[in-house]
Amino acid sequence: MYPNSLQKLIEELKKLPGVGNKSAERFALDILERKDQDIEPLVNALIDVHKNIIQCNVCAHYSQAETCDICSNPHRDHSTICVVASPKDVIAIERSGQYQGVYHVLHGVISTMRGILPSDINVENLIKRCDDSVKEVIVATNPNVEGETTAMYISKRLSDKACDVTRLASGLPMGGLLDYIDDLTLMKAIEGRKKI
Ligand SMILES: [Zn+2]
Questions:
Q1: Domain containing 117: what range?
Q2: Could you tell me the pTM of the whole model?
Q3: 34-73 burial, b for 16+ CB within 10 Å, e for fewer?
Q4: What is the tally of structural domains in the chain?
């Protein structure tokens, strides 16, 4: 067993996604063996991210300001809202460079398996956001069971609104994760979206 402080760091690192015993041990030893001045930027970045990053008050994407750069950009098409499960998906779609609308981040998906209810995700704010100025809501949740369930729920909740509800075109691998799909496939899926 390592001394307490070191063991504690290993345990904390192990809580990160994809970090197993061996990686946590390697990271912890590397952190320990760095000089003080080399570790400071990492410590500061950890504190900074918690202090300075908040959720945008419109779309809930991560932001340094109350309203994110995308929501406050007058050149974006505010009548088209792309609904995604995670901030990672905003980054993936932005990277494809083809989408001009705005976003809504759910911070999760409905899952009967994992007991995640509509009230556990940021869906109520989406319904409130969809006034008459919104023409289209593109549900870009992943093409797996949870993503489909979430899309169906959103479509039902928006059925009495004036906006169209669309879903990304097929061609995305079933169960595939948006942020792993190449830009061209994602661009085509956005272009070929269909009403649901
Ligand atoms: Zn925003």
A1: 75-195
A2: 0.83
A3: eeeeeeeeeeeeeeeeeeeeebbebbbbebeeeebebbee
A4: 2
What's 163's domain CATH number? 3.40.1360.10
Q: pLDDT per residue over 43-59, tens digit each? A: 999 999 999 999 999 99
Distance between Cα 100 and ligand 1 center (Å) = 13
| Closest C-alpha to 84, from 182, 193, 192, 179 | 179
How far apart, in whole angstroms, are the C-alpha atoms of residue 62 and residue 70?
11
Residues 85 and 16 in one domain: no
Rounded to the nearest whole angstrom, what is the distance from the C-alpha of residue 65 to the centroid of ligand 1? 9
pLDDT tens profile 74-94: 999 999 999 999 999 999 899
Domain assignment present for residue 81? The answer is yes
CA of 55 to the centre of ligand 1 (A): 8
**C-alpha 80 to ligand 1 mean position (Å):** 13
Q: Is 33 helix (H, G, I), strand (E, B) or coil?
A: helix
Averaged confidence pLDDT in the chain: 91
- Whether residue 66 is contained in a domain is answered as no
Per-residue confidence (pLDDT) for residue 168, from 0 to 100: 81
Average pLDDT score over residue span 150-174: 86
Domain-located, residue 69? no
85 and 160 belong to one structural domain: yes
Q: How far is the CA of 23 from the centre of ligand 1 (A)?
A: 35
